[in-house]
Design goal:
Length: about 375
C-alpha cells in the first residue's frame, strides 16, 4: 500500500543531526534521571523562554508564561475545547476542516456549526450570522495552509475575522500546525486578536511524531490555567524526553535547520505532484505537504477513494473533512510527505489516471492491492500522530 492519506513528513537527513544534538543533551546521568521523572520538572523559566522563541513567527511571539504544554496538538486542542466550550455549547467550524475536531467535539458534547468559506478562507459575515442565530462559544479555524484545502488567509481577512470574533465576544481557537511551511504568511490570528485567541501548535510535522510536543498559547493566565487543569485531569502530560529534546533542538538551531529542509522538500514534492496531476483540478499552496484534488467524473469522493485503495493507493476523501449536512464535494486530499519521491510519483500517476476516467474504466493495477482496510480514526483519549 502507498499511503497518501496521512501527513507524516520526515527527512532522511534529519536523523543524524538530531542524534548528535540529543547525544550532548543526555550525556550525563543526571539529565537522564531528570527526564525519566517526566516533563513537568523540565518546564522551568529558561525552557519556557527557549520554547517561546522557537514558536515565534513574523509579527508574533508567545509570552513564555502563556505557554501550556501537551503531548501533541490533538491533546492541546481537546483541552482548549473542553476549557472554552461548555457541554451542549456550539463550536463554529469551517465547512471543510480537520476531521478530529468532530471526534473531540462529540466526546465533549459540543455541537459543531459549519461556517461558510470562500477563496479567502472563513467568511467573517458567516461568523456574525451564525452567532446571531444561535450563540457560538468559540470558532476553530486554520488560517495558514488550511487542512485540507491548503489556502492561506490574507492579513486583511485575518483582521476582519479578528474583528468579528471580538464583536461576538467569543474565542478563536487557531490551529497553526502546518504554518512552519509558510514563512511568508501574515502574522497569526493571535496577533490580530491577542485577547480572544488560543493558538495551537506542535512539533509532529516540523520535527517528527516520535518527538512530538503540543502547545496551547492562552490569551490570559486564567484560561491558561483552565487548559492546564484539563490536561492534568486527563493525565495528558508531555514526556520529559519530548520537552528536553524540543528545548535542545530549538536552542541549538537544529529544529530551524530541519524546518528549512522540510520547506524545500515540501515545495519539491508539491511541484512533482502538480506535474503528475497536470490537467486535473488541483487546489492548494505550492509549499504545502498536501493538495486538494477534485474528481468530478466520479459519483462521490468516497467512491474515488475506494477505487484508489483497490489499486493500492490510500487518499483521504472529502467526507471526513466535511462538516455540513449537505453532500460533501467530489474531492480528495493527497498527502505528499513521508514516502520516497519515486514511489510518490508512481502513486500520483495512478491517481491522475483514475481522476481522468469514469468509474469502471479498465486499467491494470500498477501497485499491489491492499492487504488491509483503510485505517480508522481514534478517539481523543487514544490520540495518535496528527494527520
Amino acid at each position: 500500500m502507498i499511503d497518501l492519506s496521512v501527513n507524516l513528513p520526515i527527512l532522511e537527513a534529519q536523523h543524524g543531526v538530531v542524534r548528535c544534538a540529543l547525544a550532548a543533551a543526555f550525556a550525563d546521568e543526571n539529565s537522564v534521571r531528570r527526564t525519566a521523572l517526566g516533563g513537568a520538572l523540565e518546564v522551568d523559566t529558561t525552557t519556557r523562554s527557549i520554547l517561546s522563541e522557537g514558536l515565534a513567527r513574523s509579527g508574533w511571539r508567545p509570552a513564555p508564561e502563556m505557554l501550556v504544554l501537551a503531548p501533541g496538538a490533538k491533546h492541546a486542542l481537546a483541552a482548549a475545547l473542553e476549557a472554552t466550550v461548555p457541554r451542549g455549547g456550539i463550536l463554529g467550524v469551517e465547512v471543510l476542516s480537520y476531521p478530529t475536531v468532530r471526534v473531540i467535539a462529540a466526546e465533549l458534547g459540543i455541537r459543531c456549526r459549519p461556517l461558510a468559506m470562500d477563496d479567502g478562507g472563513i467568511r467573517p459575515d458567516a461568523v456574525l450570522e451564525a452567532h446571531v442565530q444561535e450563540p457560538l462559544a468559540a470558532v476553530y479555524l486554520q488560517p495558514t495552509l488550511h487542512n485540507p484545502l491548503g489556502m492561506t488567509m490574507s492579513a486583511a481577512r485575518r483582521r476582519q475575522v479578528a474583528e468579528a470574533v471580538s464583536r461576538c465576544g467569543i474565542l478563536a481557537i487557531e490551529d497553526t500546525v502546518f504554518e512552519f511551511l509558510c514563512p511568508d504568511a501574515p502574522p497569526p490570528l493571535a496577533a490580530f486578536a491577542p485577547k480572544s485567541t488560543v493558538l495551537i501548535d506542535s512539533l509532529s510535522k516540523r520535527l517528527s511524531p516520535g518527538l512530538n510536543l503540543g502547545f496551547a498559547v492562552a490569551p490570559d493566565e486564567d484560561l491558561g490555567r483552565r487548559i492546564h487543569e484539563v490536561l492534568d485531569a486527563r493525565r495528558w502530560e508531555p514526556a520529559g524526553l519530548a520537552v528536553t529534546s524540543a528545548r535542545t533542538l530549538m536552542a541549538t538551531g537544529v529544529l530551524t535547520q530541519i524546518v528549512q529542509g522540510k520547506r524545500s522538500d515540501a515545495a519539491l514534492r508539491n511541484a512533482q505532484a502538480r506535474r503528475s496531476l497536470a490537467g486535473r483540478e488541483v487546489e492548494g499552496h505550492a509549499g504545502a505537504y498536501h493538495l486538494w484534488l477534485s474528481v468530478p467524473a466520479w459519483p462521490s469522493a468516497a467512491a474515488f477513494a475506494a477505487a484508489a485503495a483497490a489499486e493500492g493507493v490510500l487518499v483521504a476523501p472529502a467526507d471526513g473533512f466535511h462538516f455540513a449536512a449537505t453532500a460533501p464535494p467530489k474531492a480528495v486530499r493527497i498527502a505528499l510527505g513521508g514516502i520516497p519521491l519515486e514511489v510518490l510519483e508512481s502513486a500520483l500517476g495512478l491517481v491522475a489516471d483514475l481522476a481522468g476516467r469514469p468509474p469502471g474504466g479498465g486499467r491494470k493495477p500498477s501497485v499491489p492491492r491492499p492487504a488491509r482496510p483503510v485505517p480508522g480514526r481514534g478517539r481523543p483519549h487514544n490520540l495518535g500522530p496528527d494527520t
